[in-house]
Design goal:
The complex is a heterodimer. By secondary structure, chain A is mostly helical. Chain A contains 38 helices and 5 strands. Chain A has a domain of 207 residues: Serine Threonine Protein Phosphatase 5, Tetratricopeptide repeat. In chain A, strands 1-2-3-5-4 form a 5-stranded mixed sheet. The chains are: A mainly alpha, B alpha/beta.
């Protein structure tokens, strides 16, 4: 064996330059490539030695040699580029330092194709729109740059632009029939379209039978198309072909974790980590799997709910019930049943949830669906009032149904749009509102044509484009629902499942060309938003003036302006909104009724700051409207039911007095679930509710708990004596 | 009336917790709002001190209250107030010092920031040591207050600090919740109509934790309690660490009629019976783990019913 390798090294000695070593590697000649790289490490030139170590994946040694080489040849841009390329490898994933090196190379040679390509690669990892622009510049500098075509092709496929993906891949293949990643993209295009891809895979294997990277690339695109099971199969194939492909192994582990297969995920990720693959998503996923030990699992026939043990007792009641309600509703709406129970994971630590979404496009994600696994932040993971957990849950559950119905063959815009539509269809107070950034996009006519809307989700070209795309997709579904009916939306969903494209589906079900649809939709949207879009500047002025007038105690003038501001932009419910300003002004005028009416408008518009809602509830109670007060507190339960024992006590009392005993019992039980310091009164409340519901045995049990905690608690003592007296009357 | 309980047997029990409400002797309170430095803090500290003053004055019992804030919050006036308590307080009395404001710690000495010269923890301890009151409470709710704990701790004195060490230097919120505990009946978790130092501590600690969790801020204060005089301070006083026994016996605020009943000679016999029942309940609860559940519950129910009937008699 030793002799054999010695012969190889000698043979490779004839071809010991980095390009030829990499060529051997590309063609699957691993031992030869290894020998070649080994020989480079013995070169007298540190740049060559660096390439040798890089090829052998000895990154630390390579790093040292690159540094030395740069010191020796500070004006050689190629060294910096190659050093940067090593740093963007998934094993290292140091895009910042890599980008610095590419930029330094460009300072030395302003149109260095390799440096431009390096920057494009660094940007593409985080779905930045500038990646394509950089790759195009690389092509200008080097029209035969295969990698640039391949990257543009891959990004086009990420944007669901199959035509462009094919064109760019073919351009690469035309330059070199051995452009492996271009061939892999062609295979991915076929697989995503449910067509056979053997022809392309065969061509890949002819070049390199062990090219696992092809399946890693295909798996990546399947993940973006939410086809998780198929992605897993391709990641497995990648490892089978190349057991040293730790990137593929890590991706497989992460995907298994996302789909609830934690045990195998843990084994694979641990192994990759132990073998040195320690990029952020691997390490963070391992940390997440470790923290899952602190979660409790609750199973029913249709649901699996995983909650952190510190809040499981409190949240279980609310979340399980909401999940069941959601499944019942969607089974009717979507006219189907889910084949398996849905798994809901709720993370109190936002960092844990963020691991679930690593490597996914988009920003500010609140929840995420992987097949029939839904992961989301816990309300305790977000500041009070910033997160409507129930709205998020219904949004994600819509994805579960749509993905099952279409076997995951659905464009992003449609599934997101339908999910956004379902939020407000469930409850008009839920969902998101027209934000100033959306207004700006409407004003500047930045909405995308429906046929290209997916691009807005994956690779935003301006800061708010993802948010704007969610809004637009949601409104498109609202519009279709309003004009053609919900059954048309369902029919469209099934056509997407049958592999029809967006233009085909629009033409088939709406009898319109996509361009005509866009025109009609924009006209409809304009009718709904024009007043606010046009009046935004005026609104800003009025709200500022009204605030100042209120401060100066010129209350009537403040009210007049604030009403005008509110009516110009009724959707605005964030900080410094007109509703709360008006409520303040009315309260200052001792007009509690008008103040409460204004806060109720705020709540009905979707306002969800718990402080404002508690203020409303208090006013409603004082104005003799306990039912309204209870309804207001119910809204808070959907937003921030955690860290607020007084909320549940007060809500329980209101419901008890309204004789809604099952509701009162739920709220008083929530108090107990929060391990209150005052256990006695909490148990006493449960006891009196059981008694009101006619369950004397349970009432006695709870009473005993109350008095065990505080034997001298007078209300509990009185109830005990009453129960004793009742027993004597009716044993 | 006196108390003849076997104190050594009782740890954090209901009977023990009843003591504060009926405790004899005067209660001396010194509350100081230290130097705010900025108008916002100055106002916040003064307002908390005034609120504490109001609550204490409205509480039942023989309370002697000194509150220093604004221009009065000087080292001289604080020394004077503590000297006055030292002159007046008897061994049966209790004494509580509440410090609100900013503190500092240089690695060895803690200082409470006052107008003019500051006062160190060692100096504060020396002033408190001159006070004869048999039960003492020092609540140092300032930043870096953990740095004062070692100097202040002593037998028969419960020391509560807003921070776990002198290195937690950010402004604290603990004082706000301590004062809130004094006015919130929910803080009276054993429902004996008195809020003990231990109950107020637990209430304020929980609220402080919630404050940071809700605001999604890294907690920069971790309240601690030490009341054995020579032990390790803890965040969670209880049976496991033998902390909290003294704090449970110090009534900071009385909120009910217990004090009145104790003063009525006609009720003494009933109160003695009640006390005996409470001791029995306490003993039963301690034996809970060793008993069959059904038997425990039956006995507990019977004792609790007896206690409820007795209370009804007392309330007549």
């Amino acid at each position: 064996m030793r002799l054999f390798f010695a012969v190889l090294i000698t043979a490779a000695g004839l071809a010991a330059n980095p390009d030829q070593c990499r060529s051997l590697e590309k063609h699957g000649k691993k031992p030869e490539a290894r020998a070649c790289f080994l020989q480079l490490t013995r070169s007298g030139d540190p740049f060559m030695r660096a390439e040798g170590h890089y090829g052998l994946r000895a990154y630390k040694a390579a790093n040292d040699q690159f540094r030395l080489a740069v010191q020796q040849q500070p004006k050689n841009p190629d060294i910096r580029v190659r050093w940067g390329r090593m740093l963007v490898e998934p094993f290292n994933r140091n895009t910042k330092d890599a980008a610095d090196l590419f930029s330094e190379a460009l300072e030395i040679k302003k149109d260095h194709a390799g440096a431009l390509m390096g920057l494009a690669l660094a940007a593409s990892g985080s779905f930045e729109a500038k990646a394509e622009e950089l790759a195009r510049k690389a092509l200008e500098a080097d029209p035969k740059n295969i990698e640039a075509h391949e990257l543009i092709a891959s990004m086009a496929l990420e944007d669901s632009n199959t035509k462009k993906a094919v064109e760019e891949a073919d351009a690469a293949i035309k330059i070199s029939p051995e452009a492996l990643d271009a061939l892999a993209i062609r295979a991915a295009v076929e697989i995503i379209a449910d067509r056979p891809a053997e022809e392309w895979l065969k061509r890949i294997y002819q070049v390199n039978p062990g090219y696992g990277e092809a399946h890693l690339l295909i798996g990546h695109h399947l993940v973006l198309n939410r086809r998780y099971d198929e992605a897993i199969a391709h990641f497995r194939q990648a490892i089978k072909l190349d057991p040293e492909n730790l990137h593929a192994q890590s991706q497989l582990g992460i995907q298994l974790m996302r789909t609830g297969q934690d045990q195998e995920a843990l084994r694979l990720l641990n192994d990759a980590h132990d073998r040195g693959f320690r990029e952020a998503s691997t390490t963070n996923s391992l940390k997440l799997l470790d923290s899952l030990r602190n979660f409790l699992t609750f199973k029913t026939d249709t649901t699996v709910v995983k909650l952190h043990k510190k809040e499981a007792a409190l949240l279980r009641v609310y979340m399980e019930e909401e999940l069941r309600k959601c499944i019942r509703t969607f089974e009717k709406k979507y006219k189907m049943k889910l084949p398996r129970p849905v798994q809901l994971e709720v993370y109190p630590d936002h960092e844990d949830f963020a691991v679930r979404t690593m490597g996914m496009p988009g920003v500010g994600i609140l929840g995420v669906t992987f097949g029939d696994v839904v992961a989301m932040d816990s309300p305790s993971g977000r500041p009070p009032g910033s997160f409507h957990w129930a709205s998020t849950l219904w949004h994600e559950m819509s994805h579960v149904f749509v993905l099952v119905a279409t076997k995951h063959r659905v464009p992003r815009w449609f599934t997101e749009g339908l999910a956004v539509h379902e939020e407000t269809a469930t409850n008009p107070e839920w969902g998101d509102r027209l934000t100033p950034s959306i207004l700006a996009a409407l004003r500047d006519k930045k909405l995308l044509p429906v046929a290209e809307l997916d691009r807005g989700f994956i690779r935003p070209k301006y800061e708010a484009q993802v948010v704007v795309s969610y809004f637009q997709a949601g409104k498109i579904c609202d519009y279709i629902n309003e004009k053609w009916g919900y059954d048309t939306l369902l029919a469209m969903m099934h056509s997407f499942g049958a592999r029809k494209t967006t233009p085909e589906v629009i033409e088939l079900h709406l009898k319109l060309k996509p361009e005509e649809f866009d025109k009609q939709f924009l006209a409809w949207l304009d009718g709904h938003t024009k007043k606010t879009v046009d009046g935004f500047g005026d609104w800003t002025k009025k709200i500022k003036q009204a605030t100042q007038l209120k401060r100066e105690n010129k209350l009537d003038e403040a009210v007049k302006l604030a009403v005008e501001a509110r009516d110009l932009y009724p959707d605005y419910i964030e900080a410094a909104n007109a509703y709360e300003l008006l409520a303040d002004a009315y309260e200052a005028k001792k007009d509690k009724k008008s103040a409460a009416a204004e806060l109720l408008k705020y709540a009905k518009m979707g306002g969800r700051d718990p402080k404002a809602l508690k203020r409303l509830s208090q006013m409603q109670e004082e104005l003799g409207d306990p039912r309204g007060a209870a309804a207001t507190l119910a809204r808070i339960n959907y937003v921030y039911p955690v860290n607020d024992e007084p909320l549940h006590r007060r809500f329980g009392d209101l419901l008890f007095n309204l004789k809604d005993y099952s509701g009162a019992l739920r709220e008083y039980s929530a108090v107990l679930a929060m391990s209150p310091l005052d256990r006695a009164s909490a148990h006493h409340n449960v006891a009196r509710t059981h008694l009101a519901m006619g369950d004397r045995a349970k009432a006695e049990d709870s009473l005993l708990e109350a008095l065990e905690a505080a034997p001298n608690y007078r209300p509990a003592q009185k109830l005990l004596l009453e129960l004793e007296a009742q027993k004597k009357e009716k044993p | 009336m006196g108390y003849r309980l076997d104190m050594g047997r009782l740890k954090n029990t209901v009977a023990l917790a009843l003591l504060p409400a009926l405790a004899q002797g005067a209660a001396h309170f010194v509350t100081v709002a230290g130097l705010g430095g900025e108008a916002e803090y100055e106002q916040r500290f003064t307002s908390l001190a005034k609120e504490a003053d109001k609550i204490l004055r409205g509480s039942g019992g023989d309370n002697r209250i000194h509150t220093l804030s604004g221009p009065d919050a000087t080292r001289e006036k604080l020394s004077g107030a503590l000297a006055a308590v030292a002159k007046e307080a008897k061994p049966d009395d209790q004494f509580a010092l509440l410090l609100i404001g900013h503190g500092s710690f240089d690695g060895s000495d803690y200082k409470f920031n006052l107008k003019g010269p500051d006062v160190t923890a060692i100096e504060l301890a020396a002033m408190c040591d001159r006070i004869q009151a048999g039960k003492q409470l020092v609540v140092n709710a300032t930043s870096a207050s953990g740095g004062s704990l070692h100097a202040l701790q002593r037998a028969n004195r419960a020391v509560i600090t807003a921070t776990k060490s002198g290195t937690e230097k950010n402004a604290t919120v603990f004082a706000r919740y301590w004062v809130e505990a004094l006015r919130d009946p929910n803080a009276d978790t054993d429902k004996n109509e008195a809020i003990s130092a231990l109950e107020a501590y637990r209430f304020a600690d929980q609220k402080t934790t919630n404050f940071y969790e809700t605001a999604k801020r890294l907690a920069t204060e971790h309240p601690m309690l030490e009341d054995t005089g020579n032990g390790e301070a803890t965040r969670t006083p209880g049976k496991d660490n033998d902390q909290g026994m003294l704090a449970a016996r110090i009534a900071v605020v009385r909120i009910g009629a217990a004090q009145k009943a104790a003063a009525d000679p006609a009720k003494r016999e009933l109160l003695a019976k009640k006390e005996a029942l409470e001791v029995e309940i306490d003993a039963l609860k301690r034996d809970k783990a060793a008993m069959p559940t059904a038997e425990y519950r039956k006995k507990l129910a019977s004792l609790l019913l007896g206690l409820a009937k007795l209370q009804e008699e007392i309330d007549k």
